[in-house]
Amino acid sequence: MNEKDEKIIELLRKNSRLSITEISKILGIPDTTVHYRMKKINDIIKKYTVVLNYEKLGLNLYLLRMEIEKYVLEKITKEVIDNIYNDLSGKKGTVCIFRSEENIFAIMALKEISVEEFRYPGVKNVEYLLLDSYDVI
Question: What is the residue range of 66's domain?
Fold first, then answer.
């Protein structure tokens, strides 16, 4: 990956709807070069997405932390985390999910939050924080 690739990626991170022609004009390079570079970097771009204005939708954003029980058998701990992670992935209002060895974190867009909804088997503790603002950078 070279400097042109990095500049193209940075532009697409800010606005994934930019056309090849627009990127070409912004960077001052031929559109054929942009097209060629985008084909090369396409395998490192997971997906193009939409960022919603949750406030206009009447939703609050919450940062949720679920602390996972540690089991003697690491396999059980991993299965618990995988099951919760998969369930959250399909839950309405999930904006993003990330995990560490002992926690699962999620950003949820909901009118209100009920901690009980996130008390899965194997979860030791559930906490949440109402976020003031959220933006993808």
Answer: 60-131
Is the separation of the CB atoms in 68 and 124 below 8 Å?
yes
Q: Which of 3, 20, 37, 9 is nearest to 137 (CA)?
A: 9
Residue that has been written with the tokens 């627009």 in this structure: 22
pTM for this structure? 0.70
Residue 46 has a pLDDT of: 85
Residues of the chain predicted below pLDDT 70 = 72-73, 133-137
Asked if residue 96 is part of any domain, the answer here is: yes
Report the C-alpha gap between 65 and 62 in whole angstroms.
10
CATH number at residue 77: 3.30.70.920
Say how many domains are in the chain: 2
